[in-house]
């Protein structure tokens, strides 16, 4: 996947996350933010590893999100708390998985410019 659409998607994800927090109160922005946090990690994985399979990017994003959440049980340094949070919350684990699944589905279903038959060594491929 090309890096430009991934960078645009990452920017849109950040704007959505900030917008949700600005527009609503309560659990909706909190859990939407959790899901979008994992979507952003997914997109960062794609920026670093553009040819990653969608399932591998989803597992990586969910795994990193879960690792950060569980690290909160041990204590996050004060300087990192705005980025990584400070309080373990079990429902967050579900929303991280939901974000990873949404990113995976979007990536897996995203139309490619290269026809399927060319990606698999069909007619016209070298």
UniProtKB/TrEMBL annotation:
Protein name, per record: DUF2809 domain-containing protein
A Pfam family recorded for this sequence: DUF2809
Transmembrane segments: 6-24, 31-49
Annotated keywords: Membrane, Transmembrane, Transmembrane helix
């Amino acid at each position: 996947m090309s890096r430009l659409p991934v960078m645009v998607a990452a920017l849109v994800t950040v704007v959505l996350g900030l917008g949700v927090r600005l527009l609503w109160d309560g659990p909706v922005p909190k859990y939407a933010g959790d899901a979008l946090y994992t979507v952003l990690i997914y997109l960062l994985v794609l920026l670093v590893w553009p040819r990653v399979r969608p399932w591998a990017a989803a597992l990586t994003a969910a795994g990193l999100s879960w690792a950060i959440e569980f690290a909160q049980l041990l204590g996050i340094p004060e300087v990192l708390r705005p980025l990584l949070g400070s309080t373990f919350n079990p429902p967050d684990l579900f929303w991280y998985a939901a974000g990873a699944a949404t990113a995976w589905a979007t990536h897996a279903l995203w139309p490619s410019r290269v026809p399927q038959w060319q990606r698999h060594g069909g007619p016209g491929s070298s």
